[in-house]
């Protein structure tokens, strides 16, 4: 079984990054994990930022349906005990670490690295990774698979009312989502 990664709400929010992460999981590179609370955070952020509720609910329904084994349940009893592992001012992030512990995750993928100090998570045997680091590692381990994921991601765009995206458009979107090293490395590999 591939290693598992809890995807924090902040990496599931941006469309391009969510698509790349989920397509990478679909290719069998890793097992994604989340909780209903994480998905509720994603939903709330998307709706607050103007996405129609019906479209958001449809997207999250597809996510749940594509990865039914990703849902972590029973993490709630662990949440309070995560207080020493998540910075005090980020009490709201304790549930992410609790889900990771309950789901036996290897990694938490998050843009909020400072909320999860690695020194506080080491003894839990859970690594905290920025999505740029995570995707670069995946690209290094399975370059052909990841480049194919990116090609398929670009090919799947262009459904009305949206215009099709080129592979370069996808990479630019990923750069804007906080994964510039991954995008640059993928560009380099695609040119060879």
From TrEMBL:
SUPFAM superfamilies: PIN domain-like
Domain (VapC50 C-terminal): residue spans on this chain: 131-187
Superkingdom assignment: Bacteria
Keyword Secreted in record: no
Keyword list, A-Z: Hydrolase, Magnesium, Metal-binding, Nuclease
Occurrences of domain PIN (ranges): 5-113
Pfam families registered for this protein in UniProt: PIN_3, VapC50_C
InterPro entries: PIN-like_dom_sf, PIN_dom, VapC50_C
Keyword Metal-binding attached: yes
Name of this chain's protein: Nucleic acid-binding protein
Lineage: Bacteria, Bacillati, Actinomycetota, Actinomycetes, Streptosporangiales
């Amino acid at each position: 079984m591939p290693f598992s990664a809890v995807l924090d709400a902040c990496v599931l929010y941006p469309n391009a990054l969510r698509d790349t992460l989920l397509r990478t999981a679909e290719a069998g590179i890793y097992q994604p994990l989340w909780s209903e609370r994480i998905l509720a955070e994603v939903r709330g952020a998307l709706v607050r930022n103007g996405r129609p509720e019906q479209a958001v609910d449809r997207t999250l329904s597809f996510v749940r349906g594509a990865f039914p084994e990703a849902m972590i349940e029973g993490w709630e009893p662990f949440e309070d005990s995560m207080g020493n592992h998540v910075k005090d001012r980020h009490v709201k992030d304790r549930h992410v670490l609790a889900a990771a512990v309950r789901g036996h995750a290897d990694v938490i993928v998050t843009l909020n690295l400072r909320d999860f100090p690695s020194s506080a998570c080491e003894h839990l045997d859970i690594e905290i990774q920025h999505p740029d680091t995570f995707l670069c590692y995946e690209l290094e381990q399975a370059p052909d698979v990841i480049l194919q994921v990116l090609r398929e991601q670009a090919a799947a765009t262009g459904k009305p009312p949206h215009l099709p995206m080129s592979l370069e458009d996808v990479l630019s979107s990923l750069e804007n989502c906080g994964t510039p090293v991954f995008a640059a490395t993928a560009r380099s590999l695609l040119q060879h």
